[in-house]
Amino acid sequence: MKKTCTNIDQFMAGLRKRNPGQEEFHEAVQEVASDVLPFIANHKDYQGECLLERLTEPDRVITFRVSWVDDEGNVRANRAWRVQFCNAIGPYKGGMRFDETVTESVLKFLGFEQIFKNSLTGLPMGGAKGGSNFNPKGKSDGEVMRFCQSLMTELHRYIGPDKDVPAGDIGVGAREIGYMFGQYRRLSHSFTGAMTGKGISFGGSVGRKEATGYGVVYFMREILHAVDDDIKGKTAVVSGSGNVALYCIEKLVQLGAKPLTVSDSSGFIYDPDGIDEEKLAFLKDLKEVRRGRIEEYAEKFGCTFKEGRPWGVKADLAFPCATQNELNGDEAKSLIDNGLLALAEGANMPCESKAQHLLRKHVLYAPGKASNAGGVAVSGLEQSQNSQRISWSLEEVDKRLQGIMKDIHGKCIEHGKGKGAGDKTDYVRGANIGGFIKVADALQECGVF
Ligand SMILES: NC(=O)C1=CN([C@@H]2O[C@H](COP(=O)(O)OP(=O)(O)OC[C@H]3O[C@@H](n4cnc5c(N)ncnc54)[C@H](O)[C@@H]3O)[C@@H](O)[C@H]2O)C=CC1
Ligand SMILES: O=C(O)CCC(=O)C(=O)O
């Protein structure tokens, strides 16, 4: 019987050859394979069916043109994708990203990560991701609406509550989901939960907007409790000022921590007095309503604005919540030299591999597929509520979210406790193996396809 190749160099050479130039995808697979291949080598049950080879090949990649008309009457064209990676344990599930940096490689890395993340939540969701190189920044509401409607005119053929359920990600918030869902409803002539992150007035779940940011802080609380410590009184450096960052800050403030920074693509602010509820309200208005630049915070509250990234600021905890590869090896070293205790990723793959390596060795380090799973978990709860045509209260959703983050932490402990440097828990290994097992079991039990 042909066995899974368990040599990482050989495995990666094959993957690179089949996916030339897709750097982000290579990086994401390398991280998972370096834990999963040794696991397979030690577990006969998982050796026979080329499981990781199959899991690194998407079920399908749908690529299409999106034509739309701007406010001046010019016809514009963008490219969009939906990467349906693996539906072994449930309908495809994952966000849509609108940003000029979106490529097939970026969406393959995100869709691949989503397989393991969704498995860790314990909910029946497969892995997918989609998006477009359309940049919503600086576009009018009318332009964004026409773009979203045009995109959904093609995408609607491939999605549905039992097939594939997209949601938001970078550049896709409540406004974009509303426009896309509205078009889906029109074209499908039905009202079903084919998307999550919907507005509360049309089938959304309370708590979804807050879920990723709250979830990452709940996960950090578990990490600290496991070493008899607590979040209260800790200082935190946070990057980003979008959906994940804002609600990460909100939960940090609620739990008595002191967030010191936020950033956007123009730079970061450092507020040594800490961001409190009043300052957060200003930030939410700035970013969610006015869509302004972060420098305005510094002008309003008299603190520092700097170009670049916030990782030189001394803090106990770090939460990268902006985008992939936003923290390099030198920046990780600077955080560690400044006495960092723990880092939990709010974004997907924010730490470059050199940074990951150092963080894994020196601090408690939680990878996004575990620590930012709260968003997709509450999306899963939104799907359940839609199927049953009921709405849970915020208390109910938040209680479930906290339970899910605790369970994910438990899986990381189960597969990673004592496996890291100095007998620390290796959360990366824990998440990779914990996520892999359920999907691998399902693949084996459903026959080869
Ligand atoms: N929204 C969600 O529920 C989830 C999001 N994520 C991940 O979290 C990260 C942030 O997503 P959202 O907050 O939803 O997006 P968002 O669009 O609301 O915010 C993104 C933030 O990142 C900043 N940013 C983007 N590119 C940047 C760059 N090159 N340099 C510096 N800053 C940059 C933006 O200024 C903005 O503050 C992404 O990696 C996303 O994949 C992960 C799990 C769920
Ligand atoms: O809620 C969802 O389906 C999407 C979440 C997501 O894109 C992510 O976890 O990165």
UniProtKB/TrEMBL annotation:
Positions of the catalytic residues: 129 (proton donor)
CDD domains: NAD_bind_2_Glu_DH
Database matches in PANTHER family: NADP-SPECIFIC GLUTAMATE DEHYDROGENASE 1-RELATED
Keywords: NAD, Nucleotide-binding, Oxidoreductase
GO biological process, one term: glutamate biosynthetic process
Catalytic reactions of this protein: L-glutamate + NADP(+) + H2O = 2-oxoglutarate + NH4(+) + NADPH + H(+)
SMART domains, A to Z: ELFV_dehydrog
Known role: Catalyzes the reversible oxidative deamination of glutamate to alpha-ketoglutarate and ammonia.
A Pfam family annotated for this UniProt entry: ELFV_dehydrog_N
Gene Ontology cellular component annotations, sorted alphabetically: cytosol
Taxonomic lineage from the root: Bacteria, Pseudomonadati, Pseudomonadota, Gammaproteobacteria, Alteromonadales
Domain Glutamate/phenylalanine/leucine/valine/L-tryptophan dehydrogenase C-terminal: from-to ranges: 205-447
PROSITE patterns reported in the protein's UniProt record: GLFV_DEHYDROGENASE
Binding partners and assembly: Homohexamer.
Record keyword Transit peptide present: no
Residues annotated as site: Important for catalysis: 169
Entry protein name: Glutamate dehydrogenase
Binding site for NAD(+): 212, 243
Sequence positions that bind substrate: 93, 114, 117, 168, 379
Similarity comment text for this entry: Belongs to the Glu/Leu/Phe/Val dehydrogenases family.
UniProt GO molecular function: glutamate dehydrogenase (NADP+) activity; nucleotide binding
InterPro entries: Aminoacid_DH-like_N_sf (IPR046346), Glu/Leu/Phe/Val/Trp_DH (IPR006095), Glu/Leu/Phe/Val/Trp_DH_C (IPR006096), Glu/Leu/Phe/Val/Trp_DH_dimer (IPR006097), Glu/Leu/Phe/Val_DH_AS (IPR033524), Glu_DH (IPR014362), Glu_Leu_Phe_Val_DH (IPR050724), NAD(P)-bd_dom_sf (IPR036291)
